[in-house]
Specification:
Blueprint lengths: L6 H40 L2 H17 L1 H10 L2 H24 L5 H29 L5 H29 L2 H21 L10 H6 L5 H13 L2 H31 L4 H25 L5 H21 L5 H29 L5 H30 L1 H20 L2 H4 L24
Length: 435
């Protein structure tokens, strides 16, 4: 089990962690503004659905295909330097685009390349930050921190598009890119002065023979770790199923509102705003409440509520758009209650030098299945009705939640640890503020 913080550390961790977190939050805002601006530029410039689909794939594939390799490397390297270099590479890619747009020389392939680089570097950064959180935050505070993260992501999803549209009305696209460069530099600054605790790399082979492992051996160790821990494997499969059904569900919302409820853009904005407001409220609730003592209980109840909200969307009469808005609000509210505790479970139970591999494997599996879901959802809804996908999604969530509540391997995941690793670092080394 990851070690508890001392009283002194419990006082110190907030300043250390939230200084880094604040910079990263600003950087995320800048990144979302850039994403909006680039996608809108491609829309206006080409009007091609193929171009937009390619841009989306370029942004997703590095994390889906290369994610497991990225996680393995993050677990081998210094995480502070990974975040510094990743942010720096993203900044350099953005500066290159600024120059190209200023010279009116930016081609579509330049944008694709920048998106690929930003996505790949972002994968390194995200895995390093997620895997470092458990070394900077007391175990009992991890769920609340995840609530704050969920609230941040929900808030960014709500404000980034209208803010991006507003800025595009007063600035050229390179102006928005410069904003991203500034926010990235703000994120880099704390990393230059605050040392992030590092886990000791102690594999079973190293304990026995003091030998260095290869990247491939480390990757296999991560995969075996997940497959050999039934609770972690079941929870991961649940996350994969959720992404399989909900990525298409979100993409189908415009058709559900238009074709089934007979609504227009205004009604669609009600539904999407309800989801965003719900995510913010759910994240705020989790950050204040912290969930039940057993984190998986919180997550399973959240999953049940997520399914209930989705069922409301699928079962609402075509004349009851306000009922659908209520279902969307419940979906958004329960999203952080479902996801936040699971992240906290991984951070508090998986050994620190294994976490990046687990997070990256989970991200790759979820992203890959989301793409499969998008390919399947279209033909299914064309043949059996668009609301059927929401009914299937909601029912699966409720069934998984009930099954999880009665599965000991899931409910006891916080009590059962793999014996592959021993205690990794002493409390005295978990918080440091010198460079």
């Amino acid at each position: 089990m990851a070690t508890q913080f001392s009283v002194k550390d419990n006082i110190a961790w907030k300043g250390t962690f939230f200084t880094i977190w604040g910079g990263q939050a600003l950087s995320l805002l800048g990144s979302q503004l850039v994403q909006f601006a680039l996608i809108w530029h491609l829309t206006v410039k080409t009007g091609s659905a193929t171009v937009l689909a390619t841009a989306s794939l370029v942004g997703m594939l590095p994390q889906v295909i290369l994610g497991p390799l990225v996680g393995t490397l993050v677990d081998r390297w210094n995480r502070r330097w990974i975040m510094l270099l990743a942010d720096s590479i993203i900044t350099l890619a953005t500066i290159a685009l600024v120059v190209l747009f200023a010279m009116d020389a930016a081609a579509i392939w330049h944008i694709y390349l920048a998106m690929f680089i930003r996505s790949l570097a972002g994968s390194f950064h995200g895995n390093a930050m997620n895997a470092s959180t458990s070394l900077m935050v007391p175990i009992e505070k991890l769920t609340r921190v995840q609530g704050i993260n969920q609230m941040l992501n929900g808030g960014l999803n709500v404000v980034s598009a209208p803010m991006g549209a507003l800025l595009l009305g007063v600035l050229p696209i390179q102006g928005i890119l410069i904003i991203d460069v500034i926010t990235a530099l703000i994120a880099i600054l704390p990393l230059a002065f605050i040392q992030i605790p590092q886990p000791a790399r102690i594999s079973q082979e190293e304990m026995d023979h003091d030998v260095q492992t290869t990247v491939w051996e480390d990757f296999k160790a991560g995969l075996q770790y997940m497959l050999g821990w039934p609770g972690l494997l079941i929870v991961s499969l649940m996350a994969v199923v959720i992404n399989f059904v909900f990525m298409p569900a979100y993409s189908l919302l415009p058709l559900l509102v238009k074709d089934y409820f007979g609504g227009n853009a205004i009604q669609l904005s009600w539904v999407e705003s309800a989801i965003g407001i719900g995510v913010i409220a759910g994240g705020a609730l989790l950050s204040v409440w912290g969930g039940f003592e057993r984190k998986t209980l919180t997550s399973m109840i959240g999953l049940m509520g997520l399914g209930a909200g989705t069922l409301i969307l699928g079962l609402a009469p075509s004349s009851a758009i306000l009922l659908a808005v209520g279902g969307a609000l419940l979906m958004g509210l329960m999203n952080p209650i479902t996801n936040g505790p699971i992240f906290a479970v991984i951070q508090s139970t998986v050994e620190p030098d294994m976490q990046a591999r687990i997070f990256s494997l989970l991200t790759s599996l979820c992203g890959g299945m989301a793409l499969v879901g998008l390919m399947i959802a279209g033909p299914v809804t064309d043949n059996v009705g668009i609301q059927s996908w929401f009914l299937i999604s909601g029912a699966l969530c409720v069934l998984m939640a009930v099954a999880g509540l009665f599965t000991p391997a899931v409910m006891n995941i916080e009590e059962k640890r793999s014996a592959m690793f021993d205690k990794l670092i002493p409390d005295s080394e978990r918080i440091a503020t010198k460079p």
